[in-house]
Amino acid sequence: MCLAGLLAFSSAQAHASYQVLNVAGTAGPWVWEVGGLNDAYRYGVGADGSDAIPDYTAPARLKLSDIGVGAGDVLHIFFLGGLTNAFGDIPDVNNNGYVGSVFKDDELGASGQVFPSYYYESEWGKTQNPSDPAPYGLFLQALLGALTDDNGGIIELLTLGTVVYTGEGQGFLVGSSFGIPDGATHIQFGFNDDIFGDNTGALNVCVSSEDNQCAPPVPLPGAVWFFASGIAGFLAYQRKRRA
């Protein structure tokens, strides 16, 4: 599989201060290579070092300078709509994925390998609410992302699919705003899965330099936005794979 091909930009609807990315249901949130790019962040088929070839497709990727932002600026991301499916069927889940599934967080997938959510420990249900973890966290086919350098190397991880413990029950993350760290030149999106080849559907995500540039996200019960410093607990958790 060609690295250049995997890092190809997704088609997007351009505007001076925002773009809408179409994230294919088969997209991984980042590319990894044994002994190379993002090797410490392996997930899915082949993550154990076997000869199996990862079957994710390219993340949907945007160069931040294309919307006029860079390190130190604030970035706004919103889930606009769409559905995907992780089992080859009619798309039926949104950005939060299969809420309630046992496939989530640091659990192993059907391949016996970790999901991308393995590296988001601050998002896990048992981290958010140790006494009642099942309803919360990053579930199968949740929408994930990363801020990366020019080559696709991870600078920070981010999520647009966490089911959040609000203190009163579930909150469904559909938008967030946060500062861009040094070294980050791109933002990219994909899904929380270990076997991608049979996934269907797509989601649309708006990435904007201003918080009023995108159409309102699809209304959801308990929808949650995190703005500015409020995102800190749900962004940028980097955890390297255990040996």
UniProtKB/TrEMBL annotation:
Keywords, ordered alphabetically:
Signal
Instruction: Tell me the domain of life.
Output: Bacteria
The region annotated as signal peptide is 1-16
Q: What is the name of the protein in this document?
A: PEP-CTERM protein-sorting domain-containing protein
Q: What lineage, starting at the top, does this entry show?
A: Bacteria, Pseudomonadati, Pseudomonadota, Gammaproteobacteria, Methylococcales
